[in-house]
Amino acid sequence: MATVLAIETSCDETAAAVVKKRHILSNIVASQIDIHRPYGGVVPEVASRHHVESINDVVAEALSQAKTDWQDIDGIAVTCAPGLVGALLVGLTAAKTLVMLHHKPLIGVHHLEGHICASYLQNPDLVPPFLCLLVSGGHTSLIQVEGCGQYHTLGQTRDDAAGEAFDKVARLLDLGYPGGPAIDRIAISGNSQAFNLPEGKISLPEGGFHPYDSSFSGLKTAVLRLVESLRQRGEDLPVADIAASFQHTVAKALTRRTINCAVDHGLFTIAVGGGVAANSALRDQLSAAAQKKNLQVLFPPLSLCTDNAAMIACAGAEHLDRGHRSALTLAALSRMPISKVMELYSG
Length: 347
Ligand code: KG4
Ligand code: ZN
Prior knowledge:
With about 350 residues, the protein is of the alpha/beta class. Helices cover about 40% and strands about 20% of the residues. The protein has a 5-stranded mixed sheet, with helices on both faces. Strands 8-7-6-9-10 form a 5-stranded mixed sheet, sandwiched between helices.
């Protein structure tokens, strides 16, 4: 299997990594979280500028820590969609420049396919078919993984992504950015049963509820109303209890849909990916529910849940081994459904 250098700059992490045969040789992440924190979220222009400043050092560090030189690299993978276009362009330009300088194949990678492949790094023997629960700042999807580049979306969110809901509720509770880790931390000391919050269901025209799609905007509004009414009554906000109840509700909603989806489709392995896969309530609830149904659930280590380039290198290596390559005209796209991944390859 190929040795691949990858670059990831789709949002606020400048990352580069070298992966060989589903094993990480280096994984460098220069996080911009501290830079964006004062703004309460990622500022696209600021992110692009910082990617430009860091990219050369991050790539050099990835090669040096991997103790690899250019002749050992079989291809260069880069995240080209979806993400912030200005941010993606920095990584894409760096990758294309290196491809031309060192005469290597270019492999464009869909960011979500990277999150799916993070599970291969932790479990090198994992083979499709399996179900992936992908929960990040921008996505909440249940994806049937049929093979490299073959994905079928079975469920998704109709409004906010799970990570987005964590970030918005954290802002309401003055817990800062990014919200997910902050809520997870404070929830430890809270009572998850203190408030009964709505799980958010999608009604079907023929009656009943959509079994796999989710909605988090109602839950977010319920937390807003709760906070407003407690403040109006002049009460101190029980922040830990609200955080724990919110987190418990999100985990319950995701667990129910994921288990139903796996059982209905005869998929016995569930791989979880994306930043929200780091959440402790989700880990606990999904693991317990899977065990009851004799399903295997795989959570990558925390460093591979949030954005990183090792997962992009892993996805790139899977494609390179199958002869998939991208043209030098490869574009950065802010949106792209995962079902269209194979359009990134010309041969
Ligand atoms: O996958 P990721 O790093 O970036 C995207 O591709 O979006 O996910 C970032 C999201 C953020 O919304 C962050 O608040 C959330 O993942 N997150 C968490 C936790 N750690 C990160 N959400 C809940 N619990 C966590 N422990
Ligand atoms: Zn991501």
